[in-house]
Amino acid sequence: MRVSIFSTCLVDLMSPNVGIAMVEVLERLGCEIDYPASQVCCGQPAYNSGYLQDSKLAMQNMMLAFEASDYVVGPSGSCIAMFHEYPKIFRGEPDWELKAIALKEKSYELTQFIVKVLGVTDVGATLEGTATYHRSCHMTRLLGEKETPFQLLEHVQGLKLEPLKNSDNCCGFGGTFAVKMPEISEQMVDEKCGCVMETGADILISADMGCLLNIGGRLSRKGEPVRIMHIAEVLNQRQPVISKGGSRT
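and the corresponding structure tokens:
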């Protein structure tokens, strides 16, 4: 199965380790990976800020970048949800509308793809610790995906998952929202951090790097020792192999 990676801006520029983990997990599951080099931003920041015409240029580029792809998989429910908005945005523009529909139909968030396309719920991951999971707004509300992350996490050996209070509440990032309304955003992320600390978890997991960077940054400023992990990194954790000589590989 040939899969094109949609890296997303935050993973590409700030968390490349997440992209590496995603590729390694998919390759381990038998996928053939490619990376269209002409991909850029999906257009979401400009679109959400009201700059429709400017954002459409980025969207058109993305439709062309992935036109030959069999499947498009990304590590962000938010960015994949943006792909799913393209048909509405290009409605009435026949050529682009067809391209938008084609991209929507073959685009998946990572956990969605693993569970719903590959039919896998146990990727053979092992991670010792207690974790809690933050649901990102766009993945939950726009993409409509609530279950696949948990279906995969419940099969990670050694991982204890604690429920997160007010898990559906926004963390305060919201893309440009955090920049335009920092005082409100700060109060929202403080509430989220409090809920994380109440779980007693030493790991916070999510499927969107925007949320993780926002919550992780605030936890760090508060001096809270919570490890931040994208779900791709969790699924890529493997039990070390002990050689006959006793060394770990």
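(Above: one complete record from the training split.) The beta strands are 2-5, 32-34, 71-74, 107-109, 126-133, 157-162, 203-206, 227-230.
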